[in-house]
């Protein structure tokens, strides 16, 4: 199928610094594209440009053959949904009300007839049905992230952006969320997701894009892109790529004897900061 | 606040939806009845007491229904229609306008502490209104004061908006400090006008600073009513989208809200409502803070409910507050702005403490 979303020579300059430079990217319906890379590589910025939040300084982004900046806010909301890294809410709405906000682009359209059904279903798919009556600000970080994911699902857009959706989640919910993302892609959605956990990216993405210093260093199938050589260079830390039960597992190389064996560290620095909710 | 999660079951939600719908209709209906009762009660009381049945009878006769008794006192009918009703209606309009403006402002700023009085919009409007008095401008007839109050309010709201936002959000500390700065400048402006004005203008300015409904006339009501009704209708129209602003600027845009346009329209409506209330009643602070908060506690933060319930609640509050202000001490008319600030000040303090605790600092 032809590209649904495409970036052509996108560059972003903020205060004289090039955050992104010369990025070409295509996203097709039915595929999950993972954006990975070290801190400050420009992942969130690229997500912002692709989702139409941020106007690029150079190049342009096309959605459905039309420049993304030409779409109205409402038109765009019916085509792409976004789950941001940080969730905030100014007032104490209930979880179900927050998820229902995802239905607002469909207000006064035939699709609005399915609001109840879709909200119910989205609450279930994001595993927050049991929290439906809770007040959003009283939830834990992981629960808030899942609620935002439910809101994204309720929006029912053919294009979904997720910025580190698994950062605050436990293992079960990480797998569950990306499993739902996969299902959505198999049903025809195009998904762009920023991930820090390279093993998760390898397991769930059709394509992995490696960003470093604002440039797209590699773009391809996980097995082709996630090599020890490239990752070691990009992250500035020795990285091993292992094969385990048909899965790619990416682990940082650790000098033995550096830490006592009784306290194994299973996460990289970046992930450790995320798991502290 | 319910900390208990509801067991997942398909039967619970529809029942909950019906219950909440009934609750919403009940709240609006209850506030509507409270407003009618408050108006009848307030119209009947004062230096010349008119029983509630006679107040109702007088109104019904005016609308062509020969039901109920007419005021038995020879001056009763006159007192009601020349003095009481304009004042009570003005109180209801000003209360509705200020509470709606508060609810809108809190939605727009995504900050529960925003309020026209606190952030200086009221004093900006009062400054412009006072300038009309001192310089004797009459370019738009009776509408001159209302028009200038609106413009004064608009300029100050835009100033607050531009100065207190950074990175797409408004922090409590910035908002309150911006309010202090704006209030300082407008107070200086008012002081300068006091210095410039003659005796009569000075009295008018002091009256504005205190806030009072004394001397309300049908002529003024005729100016204020269309502005307030228009402002509330516009607020009701904006309400559903204000819920989405709670998500934050970016997320609101993601679900299809044209955030900048919504903000500007809402700011104009806030200035319109505040200007209308301030033009003839002066600065009546904290109504826009207290009322929406009480409604949120009862009905939750959804603006579809918050806006109309705040309008009704604000009207009830100010009608009753004004009744108290003019009857608490015989033959004395206490300034209503003093009264609302007396109650609103501690309430604001309590909210500050709570915001600080729940938001983990001054965010």
Annotate the secondary structure layout.
The complex is a heterodimer of chains A (277) and B (363).
Chain A: E1 5-14, E2 17-27, E3 32-36, H1 43-50, E4 58-63, E5 66-67, H2 73-77, E6 80-83, H3 95-101, H4 115-125, H5 141-154, E7 159-163, H6 171-186, E8 190-194, H7 198-204, E9 207-212, E10 215-220, H8 222-225, H9 228-235, E11 239-244, E12 247-252, H10 269-275
Parallel strand pairs in A: 3-8, 3-9, 6-7, 7-8
Antiparallel strand pairs in A: 1-2, 1-4, 4-5, 9-10, 11-12
Chain B: H1 12-44, H2 52-62, H3 76-109, H4 116-119, H5 121-135, H6 143-164, E1 165-166, E2 169-170, H7 172-196, H8 199-210, H9 218-245, H10 249-254, H11 259-281, H12 287-299, H13 303-327, H14 336-358
Antiparallel strand pairs in B: 1-2
Strand content of chain B: under 5%
Straight-line distance between termini of chain A? 40 Å
- Please, what is the average pLDDT of chain B? 85
Structural class of chain B: mainly alpha
> Radius of gyration of chain A over alpha carbons?
19 Å
Q: What oligomeric state do the depicted chains represent?
A: heterodimer
Largest sheet: number of strands, sense, barrel closure of chain A? 6 strands, mixed
- Outline type of chain B: globular
What is the tally of helical segments of chain B?
A: 14
Determine the structural class of chain A based on helices, strands and strand pairing.
Answer: alpha/beta
Largest sheet: spatial strand order of chain A: 6-7-8-3-9-10
> Could you tell me how far the N terminus lies from the C terminus of chain B, measured between alpha carbons in angstroms?
22 Å
Measured by residues with Cβ under 8 Å of the partner chain's Cβ, the largest interface is: A-B, 41 and 35 residues
Beta-strand percent range of chain A: 25-35%
Poorly predicted tracts of residues of chain A: 263-277
Number of strands of chain B: 2
* Mean pLDDT across every amino acid position of chain A: 89
Shape of chain A: globular
The tally of beta strands of chain A, per DSSP, is 12
Strand order of the largest sheet of chain B: 1-2
Q: How much is the radius of gyration of chain B in Å? A: 21 Å
């Amino acid at each position: 199928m032809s590209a649904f979303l495409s970036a052509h020579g996108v560059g972003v300059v903020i205060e004289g610094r090039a955050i992104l430079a010369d990025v070409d990217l295509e996203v097709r319906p039915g595929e999950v594209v993972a954006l990975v890379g070290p801190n400050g590589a420009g992942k969130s910025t690229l997500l912002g440009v692709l989702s139409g939040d941020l106007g690029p300084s150079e190049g342009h982004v096309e959605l459905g053959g039309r420049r993304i900046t030409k779409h109205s806010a409402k038109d765009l909301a019916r085509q792409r949904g976004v789950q941001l890294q940080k969730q905030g809410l100014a007032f104490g709405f209930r979880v179900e009300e927050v998820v229902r906000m995802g239905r607002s682009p469909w207000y006064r359209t035939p699709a609005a007839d399915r609001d109840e059904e879709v909200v119910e279903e989205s609450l279930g798919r994001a595993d927050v049905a049991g929290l439906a009556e809770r007040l959003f600000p009283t939830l834990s970080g992981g629960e808030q992230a899942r609620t935002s994911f439910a809101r994204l699902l309720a929006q029912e857009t053919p294009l979904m952006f997720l910025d580190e959706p698994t950062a605050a989640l436990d293992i079960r919910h990480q797998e569950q969320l990306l499993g739902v993302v996969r299902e959505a892609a198999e049903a025809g959605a195009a998904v762009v997701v920023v991930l820090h956990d390279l093993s998760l990216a390898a397991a769930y993405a059709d394509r992995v894009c490696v960003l470093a210093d604002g440039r797209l260093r590699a773009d391809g199938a996980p097995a082709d892109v996630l090599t020890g050589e490239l990752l070691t260079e990009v992250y500035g830390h020795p990285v091993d790529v292992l094969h385990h039960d048909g899965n790619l597992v990416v682990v940082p190389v650790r000098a033995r004897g550096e830490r006592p064996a009784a306290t194994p560290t299973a996460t990289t620095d970046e992930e450790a900061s995320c798991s502290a909710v | 606040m319910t900390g208990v999660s509801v067991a997942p079951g398909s039967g619970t939600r529809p029942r909950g939806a019906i219950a909440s719908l009934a609750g919403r209709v009940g709240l609006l209906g209850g506030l509507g009845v409270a407003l009618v009762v408050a108006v009848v009660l307030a119209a009947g009381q004062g230096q010349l007491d008119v029983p509630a049945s006679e107040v109702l009878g007088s109104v019904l006769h005016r609308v062509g229904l020969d039901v109920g008794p007419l005021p038995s006192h020879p001056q009763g009918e006159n007192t009601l229609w020349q003095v009481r009703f304009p004042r009570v209606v003005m109180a209801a309009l000003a209360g509705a306008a200020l509470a709606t403006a508060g609810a809108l402002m809190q939605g727009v700023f995504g900050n529960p502490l925003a309020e026209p009085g606190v952030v200086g919009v009221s004093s900006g409007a009062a400054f412009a209104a006072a300038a009309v008095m001192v310089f004797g401008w009459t370019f738009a007839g009776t509408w001159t004061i209302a028009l200038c109050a609106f413009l004064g309010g608009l300029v100050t709201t835009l100033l607050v908006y531009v100065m207190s936002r950074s990175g797409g959000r408004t922090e409590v500390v910035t908002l309150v400090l911006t309010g202090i700065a704006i209030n300082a400048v407008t107070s200086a402006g008012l002081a300068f006008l006091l210095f410039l004005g003659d005796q009569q203008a000075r009295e008018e300015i002091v009256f504005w600073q205190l806030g009072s409904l004394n001397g309300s006339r049908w002529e003024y009501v005729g100016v204020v009513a269309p502005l307030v009704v228009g402002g509330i209708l516009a607020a009701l129209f904006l309400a559903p989208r204000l819920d989405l602003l709670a998500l934050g600027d970016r997320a609101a845009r993601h679900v299809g809200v044209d955030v900048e346009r919504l903000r500007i329209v809402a700011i104009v409506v806030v200035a319109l409502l505040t200007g209308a209330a301030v033009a003839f009643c002066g600065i009546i602070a904290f109504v826009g803070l207290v009322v929406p908060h009480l409604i949120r506690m009862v009905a939750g933060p959804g603006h579809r409910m918050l806006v109309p319930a705040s309008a009704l609640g604000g009207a009830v509050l100010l009608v009753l507050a004004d009744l108290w202000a003019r009857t608490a001490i015989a033959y004395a008319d206490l300034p209503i702005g003093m009264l609302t600030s007396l109650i609103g000040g501690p309430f604001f303090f309590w909210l500050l403490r709570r915001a600080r605790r729940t938001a983990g600092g001054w965010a």
